[in-house]
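Posting for a labmate who doesn't have an account.
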Amino acid sequence: MFIHSLNAQQVLGRVYVSIASLTLTGAALAQGTPAADGGPVAVAGGQPAAGAAAQAGAPAAWMNLVIFGGMILFMYFFVIRPQQKRQKDHKNFIESLKTGMEVVTASGLIGRITVITDTIVTLDLGSTTVRVLKSTISGELGKPSLQPAQ
């Protein structure tokens, strides 16, 4: 749209002005003087000083991605995966509960299972019975450790 409204001389004049300004900016950079538009000051090799410092001191952008990916892998293998394994083992344990098993709850109660429903387990604690949620049972005791009260 913009070019169609100009005639050929105007277009060529604008191209010439653009090329001339680029040439002047390039010459100023090669001499180590600031560019006319306030750009960075160049060093002897023609590289801008800010760019040279950024290239020498900062790591490449792909290196940041490698570090970020490494952190994600670390979190997956050392945090997420073990937690998923513990959840799976606990779910299998809860599904395998049977009456007569001696278990310990998350709160530290030790008892023998007497009744199992869908979500609630009744534990015999020796002198009393307690109803607890299945999900609060944290493990099975290896040998009977509950002695009757004397």
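Reply:
Got it, the structure tokens are right above this. The two ends are 101 Å apart (CA to CA).
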